[in-house]
Amino acid sequence: MQAADRQRFAAVSMMIDDTLSELIRRRPRTLVLTGAGLSAESGIPTFRDAQTGLWSRYSPTELASPEAFESDPERVLDWYDWRRALIARSRPNAGHTAVKRLLDALPGARLVTQNVDGLHQLAGARDAIELHGNIWRLRCAAPGCRHERYWSDRTAPAPRSCPDCGKILRPGVVWFGESLPAQALASAWQLAEVAEFVIVAGTSGLVHPAAALPFHALEQGARVVEINPDRTALSQAAHWHLACSSGTALPALADLLDAP
Ligand code: OAD
After folding, report:
1. Most C-beta atoms within 10 A of its C-beta, which of 10, 107, 137, 233?
2. Separation of 40 CA from ligand 1 center, angstroms?
3. Is the full-model pTM beyond 0.70?
4. Is residue 120 flagged as an active site residue?
């Protein structure tokens, strides 16, 4: 470990009080909820960073809405090609690896993510619930055509026309104004209902219904830790707010499970 990492690690260890350590060591039924901040340390910009964020040039609705796709499909698909190329060059970071360790070590723990980049899965996380879909999935935009496929070739841009009907293919992600996949949302809600402990990492909590999940868990009596360098609407309500990066805080939490 390098000196800077050691310093960061020491700083986060100070934020983890005895109550939090003991709770994790008791191996509670855990829900991990992640957002774009988790992939920031893999070099993927978050959505709302003022300078580098994915929405810095265009507004969300100009790039990720059915209306944008209808009015300028090429612009929307070019943007998704750019994002896929960026993700293809990225690797899971220490935060992704720590989530996998937590899922493996905590019985019944589940991951719900808003991220569409697939980096959690690349790090080995099992059974991730993807609330906003996956950027590597493609589906035909034509009404009535059910063509859907996973595009695993990370070296080439995704195809744009449907092999079944010739109409345009769109990314298998949830756009603004669209419903979340019903099964994924129902499972996430159920997990929030029964969780004893919720780890919320790298999300601004600005997009619903995902943002409501930790509050629902709190109402049911769960303990909640938020990991985010910035404060959010959840920070006040959460039992702990670890004001640091997920690549530092999540490994520190996972290490607690290794300790004798
Ligand atoms: P946002 O871009 O809204 O928020 C990212 C959060 O991560 C911010 O609160 C940052 O402070 C925090 N952050 C940045 N770097 C971090 C780090 N290294 N460690 C921990 N936290 C860090 O992303 P989401 O909350 O995921 O939806 O956004 C939710 C949804 O809004 C996305 O799924 C996307 C977007 O519009 C759609 O595209 C439908």
Report:
1. 137
2. 9
3. yes
4. no
